């Protein structure tokens, strides 16, 4: 009996230790957060607040210069008038009460000093003290409603979570002032009704339904307008709306009685989200829950160019867009760049808001803006800042039609504006998963395919699996950028039932929305090593570096040098000279085109070499270790695109030569130090370093194109590969050499770029 008791004690002790270890192992990945769609903890169901008769009846809204729909200046409707809340004594507990009263799960942060602009009207609350448990802001302690010594420069704002409270129900405590209130429901959807639309992805036509009190309800079309449809379509990733056939919907409504929401909707058409629209009149109060002489609201949306199922209308699209997005991880997000005078430039973030961001999103064929980002959040651009203090009405066809300040004085690329747009739900995420990883951002790649009439999960052959394929996987899952592509995944067990290879020969350009869009073998699989331990895997990251070469430095430092062969022995051994150098005596000269390379990291994370430190190679010429064997390629082309001088693949030691103000250097080559390029820093390879040249000994005088490619084999993932090459015009008269019109890839209009032979897009190099 004693042994039995001891055994049980040991079992409890071991179980406790295992639980502690499990919590610790999970905790080490908590900083990564969870990706969209990952299971969230259960939220408690919403219960409608029961207010005392003496509690002031108020309504809230978020207003001002918003950059997301779920943030803004806190405004209170009381005594027939909208007013604000003072930031004195306001804290996260008060913000929590505001957000939950509006139907959001929680508050993320709060902002003082009228960060969303100054409000108008009374300041209804001052010195607010909340515990965070109150059902309404009116229950928190304060000076008393309307008693304040604040100015509107102290108006407080909040940022609420994206997630809505399950079962949230809008309660109108001011029934006589409906037209002044914003819409607050748990969720919105377009539900396909007709059989011809039910199997289509994305859903483009159907009933507009709101979820209120945990139940989906239709909206009576009595006061519905085209502006309302425009907002709904925009929320679901569509740039516009179109007419539909109402007859079939009348027939459907007769067969199945709709359940109507109590209110109508009143949008102006430029809102980014339904929550910014006003409530219409309570249309059902006098009609016993019916919609007199009306039907449920139906919308039919127009997909953008990237989501067209049929491409007959592709000829209608402009050949050269005036706006583009760069540096984003997924479709519909990125730094905003505009084309002006044949050159791409950025927008300064002064006054940048959801209205302007939505104009950009619609122009590019997406829906409304999910978020307007500032401060170079999606990486810094190069070249000019074309627009500043942009102000749009929301109905412009292009951001270039909006008013703006042509003077961008004081604006730097640290203030580059960016957007995240609403895009159609294509269902790509459901056909791919990562399995066996330590956290949701890594694992063996498993895809869902059809085999013998049924859907099965399987692995991807890792032969030829590289960064570009991994990039597409991370994008498809909404997990950001690839940080690694793995050709062996024996350490990630994955699902045993999914061990079989179902996809092989995958080759991606890196821009695809789904792995199935990449080239692959189809049904004719070929994978000599098989799946299992050799299945493809990835790890993803929300951020990535972005290397960009400074073209002006190349232009300013170019010169020609005649150097004797006996001084080039080290460079000869490292293949930095043309092949004819092996046939000449040591007392002859080689003619070298020399220049400096200044390579900036404009991304969001440090550029680190892929190779481990123990595999770095010592280079006698430079007297340090090189962490990347092929970091740049130098080439010289004739004007018809023929390579005329033997370029070479330059290996580099990566370090921070200089940094922007306020950023500390982290990497150096000396003493076998860590190598890389910090965000906001640059690595300069000076013109007087060995191998920093092209051997032009055998070149005839004439006009040429000089080209540099950085990270040519995509060895290290970056947020943007299109800017990884630089081209210059080069003139050589036999005695002197000039470099001019140097520019980075993608910095000029396509018409101008076509006049430069050589590489036009680094996305398809070496494929």
From TrEMBL:
It is found in: Chromosome; Endoplasmic reticulum; Nucleus; Secreted, Extracellular space, Extracellular matrix, Basement membrane. Keywords: Basement membrane, Calcium, Chromatin regulator, Chromosome, Copper, Disulfide bond, Endoplasmic reticulum, Extracellular matrix, Glycoprotein, LTQ, Metal-binding, Nucleus, Oxidoreductase, Repeat, Repressor, Secreted, Signal, TPQ, Transcription, Transcription regulation. GO terms for cellular component: basement membrane; chromosome; endoplasmic reticulum; extracellular space; membrane; nucleus. It holds the Pfam family SRCR. SMART domains: SR. Residues 60-161, 190-302, 323-422, 432-541 form the SRCR domain. Disulfide bonds join 86-150, 99-160, 130-140, 267-277, 392-402, 508-518. Residues 747-767 are annotated as: Disordered. It comes from the Eukaryota. The lysine tyrosylquinone cross-link (LTQ) is generated by condensation of the epsilon-amino group of a lysine with a topaquinone produced by oxidation of tyrosine. Its cofactor is Cu cation. It catalyses: L-lysyl-[protein] + O2 + H2O = (S)-2-amino-6-oxohexanoyl-[protein] + H2O2 + NH4(+). The keyword Cell membrane does not apply. One of its GO terms (molecular function) is copper ion binding. Its main location: nucleus. Residues 1-27 form the signal peptide. One of its GO terms (biological process) is collagen fibril organization. Its EC number is 1.4.3.13. The keyword Oxidoreductase applies. PANTHER family: LYSYL OXIDASE HOMOLOG 2, LYSYL OXIDASE-LIKE-RELATED. Mediates the post-translational oxidative deamination of lysine residues on target proteins leading to the formation of deaminated lysine (allysine). Belongs to the lysyl oxidase family. This is Lysyl oxidase homolog. It comes from Oreochromis niloticus (Nile tilapia).
